[in-house]
Specification:
- This protein is of the alpha/beta class.
- It folds into two domains: 4-122 and 296-311, Rossmann fold, CATH 3.40.50.720; 126-275 and 319-345, Dihydrodipicolinate Reductase, domain 2 (2-Layer Sandwich), CATH 3.30.360.10.
- Helix content is 37%, strand content 25%.
- The protein is built from eleven helices and 15 strands.
- The chain has a nine-stranded mixed beta sheet with strand order 14-13-12-11-7-10-9-8-15.
């Protein structure tokens, strides 16, 4: 089977790791990097051995018969670039969030169906090795009906040092890390019926919220609380780790610091240490995130090849975005939001 050829659109901070992760997956080859700054595109292409660099996407599409594009650009450019790619008959993989609004994301999904061109989202958080292992444990159903769960991503990592543009976002932590954490809640526990959200701004000099708490009632009846913060100094301050605790009627399980899973049942406590894959290009500060990108790419590529369904299609990720913007609506209204009513209204 031939290699699929793709272009990376966007040459910012994450692009170097995105391309390096693609290098670990057989069956796809990057033939071009495109960025409005030709210097940045050329630098990234030379750095990672990509043969072509462009400043204009139209020139990129005119010169190459691409199988797909991987869009690693600014949030406001996601929807226009994905739409242009699909109009050209090129499958689009887009970084999260898929679009700046639920309406724009829905329009992209409709366009994908109308043109019969794949639209996927690079949602790598659920592909972290500890979270995949936790899902396998929960699938065993050994804890009986689940009662409640908590997902914590709360730390004091200086996220704005590497990505200063995030300071200007009027919607920050829910739109940024919230897309990951709320997607994990769906991956582990299914869809929500209702949610309630509160937000705070703790850091001076930023436009948006850097603390958010979302409580959801899942369709199963399970209560899930998601705590998100870039302003937390506490015992679980371990960027970029996600801590998860789940209680069932016959026991429970937790994913704690440093990838430790503990199972609690009638026999006592059982501890399991999860190891991460090793790649030379990984930034140690982002090891957990960077290693998960490889398995995410592998799944998306299998979807593009028709080998098996991709998990994070545009349609699937739309459900996560609906939770994100329902959370913003709840925080603004200072009340709970019924998810089915919110999605119908939007």
């Amino acid at each position: 089977m031939r290699e699929l050829e793709f272009a990376l659109i966007g040459a910012g901070f994450w692009s170097q790791y995105q391309l390096a992760a693609w290098g670990e997956v057989s069956g796809a080859r990057c033939v071009a990097v495109c960025d409005p700054s030709l210097d940045k595109a050329q630098h990234r292409a030379i750095q990672l051995g990509v043969p072509n660099a462009y400043a204009h996407v139209d020139e990129l599409f005119d010169r190459h018969a691409l199988d797909f594009v991987d869009i690693v650009s600014t949030v406001e450019s996601h929807a226009p670039l994905a739409a242009l790619a699909m109009q050209r008959g090129v499958a689009a993989i887009c970084q999260k969030p898929l679009a700046e609004s639920v309406e724009a994301a829905r329009a992209l999904c409709r366009q994908s169906h109308a043109l019969q061109v794949p639209l996927m989202v690079h949602e790598n958080w659920r592909w972290q090795a500890p979270i995949r292992r936790l899902r396998a444990i929960l699938d065993s159903e050994e804890f009986g009906p689940l009662v409640r769960a908590r997902i914590d991503f709360a730390n004091s990592f200086p996220v704005f040092d590497n990505q200063p543009a995030l300071k200007a976002l009027k919607q920050f932590i829910l739109a940024d890390i919230g897309t990951h954490i709320l997607d994990v809640s769906r991956f582990l526990f299914g869809e929500a019926e209702e949610l309630y959200c509160q937000t705070r701004q703790m850091r001076a000099g930023i436009a948006g919220e850097d603390v958010a708490t979302v409580m959801m009632r899942k369709q199963s009846g399970l209560t899930v609380t998601c705590n998100m913060s870039y302003a937390s100094r506490w015992e679980l301050d371990r960027f970029p780790q996600t801590m998860i605790a789940v209680e069932g009627t016959r026991g429970g399980v937790s994913l704690g610091t440093d990838y430790t899973i503990c199972i609690y049942d009638d026999r006592g406590k059982h501890r399991e240490q999860i190891s991460l894959p090793k790649y030379d290009w990984v930034n140690p500060a982002y090891e957990l995130v960077h290693t998960s990108m490889v398995d995410c790419h592998r799944n998306l590529l299998a979807g593009l090849r028709g080998e098996k369904p991709a998990e994070t299609t545009g349609d699937d990720n739309l459900k996560t975005l609906e939770l994100v913007y329902a959370a913003y609506a709840s925080a603004e209204q200072q009340g709970s939001v019924r998810i089915n009513h919110f999605t119908k209204a939007n």
